[in-house]
Amino acid sequence: MAAMETLLNPFSLTVGLSGLIFLISGYVLKRRPPREINWFYGYRTSASMRSQERWDFAQRESAVAGMQVGGAMVILSLPAMWFWPPSFLQLYLGILVLVLGVVYLFWKVQTGLRKRFGP
């Protein structure tokens, strides 16, 4: 039982599963990006929804960034399965990594939009 508790610690679960979701979402967005601007599916910010050209660019960029974040999170979660003793702190660190991943994704896409299309 102790081995299973180590493998399924809060950090590895939070970061690993979130990373898989980012990877899958990025892959789906890359394979089937939304063709038209909408409020339901895709990378939706006011900057990305100003024109069709911005929208298409943001979908491509967010797909790549999502897969980058997801891959990094999965890789980061693997050693934690075996080398971190269970602790309540792991959940908070896992959430921090998740939030930093989301911030990075938004920063990367918004910066790309500003560089390509201006403010």
Q: Oligomeric status of the shown chains? A: single chain
Please write the string of helix (H) and strand (E) elements. HHHH
Helix/strand-derived category reads mainly alpha
Residue ranges: pLDDT <50 for 5 or more in a row?
none
What is the radius of gyration computed over CA atoms, rounded to a whole number of angstroms? 17 Å
Number of spatially distinct domains: 1
Q: How much helical structure, as a percent, in the residues?
A: over 70%
Indicate the proportion of strand residues: under 5%
Principal-axis shape equals elongated
Strand elements, count: 0
User: What separation lies between the terminal Cα atoms?
Assistant: 55 Å
Average residue-wise pLDDT:
90
* Biggest beta-sheet profile: none
Total helix count? 4
Would you write up a description of this structure?
The protein has helices at 2-7, 10-31, 52-83, 88-117. It has four helices and no strands. The protein has one domain. With 119 residues, the chain is an all-alpha fold. Helix 3 packs antiparallel against helix 4. It starts with a helix and ends with a helix.
